[in-house]
Specification:
With 330 residues, the protein is an alpha/beta fold. The chain is 29% helix and 25% strand.
Amino acid sequence: MRAVQIAELTGPRTALRVVDVPDPEPTHFLTPGEGVLVEVKAAGVSFPELLQTRGEYQMKPDLPFIPGSEVAGIVRSASAGSGLRPGNRVAAFCMLGGFAELAVAPAGMTFPLSDTLDFGQGAGLILNYHTAYFALVTRGRLVAGETVLIHGAAGGVGTATIQVAKGLGARTIAVVSSEEKADVARQAGADDVVRSDGAWKDEVVALTGGVGVDVVVDPVGGDRFTDSLRSLARTGRIVVVGFTGGAIPEVKVNRLLLRNTEVIGAGWGEYVLSSGGLGYGAEVGAALLPLIDAGYVNPVVGARFPFERAAEALELLNDRRATGKVVLEP
């Protein structure tokens, strides 16, 4: 089969190569003998893959290796107890090996793909939308009627968070860096949009009648973090998802006492692989189904590339030019 490998740790422009490799066996290191072999129609491109091209991600496989944590495609084979059959359309989280014509995922992280979504959308469903649900509900304790502020709102996690929050009955305020990205956030369903290069904190406070927001979801980090704290309502929560902006902010914890606010970490991958287990993935998958059926969850695909242009796909993320989900299509 054809696959994209990371052959050296020199960054997205030079680290990748397209190669022919043997087909994978339908087993998986998380659930030996219970893997699902998927004929990949689309593979999601995410920030971890970008970090992996530089050796900066916590998972450091031996070189060369096939990156790619999530795919969508057709089941070629599946274990008897998986509930899946050859020919089923699925979205799957495989952790590694997704940038290939065939990939293997654990049965517990392979989900039927609704006919309302194409394969490119399916490749953006698990990592982004499960992260959004985890950040909003499991960690952020969001309830209907609350207001959510979303940083990086035109990206994959951002657009997913807008849609999941809307589906759960929340008001959403999107923070973006350009008018192009503002349009993406609005198309994803944001109620209000503010620009990160303006007085966004004051605008947010004004939009909420001086009260502030109940939840901030932040996959960006950087120097806007203090203003995120200032934009919270009493008992508000900032949920930290990542640091795509590069800088890791520091918190003066005395600020948390002023309005009984919280800063909460949301490491979806760590939770699924340890305390939450694969059963949590099934729980979130089931919770998202009615949001898909109702039209709230409709993944935004910003760009599609063939394998031969995988470096361009990663450079979109590197340059912070990506909107929605970026996917590779064999």
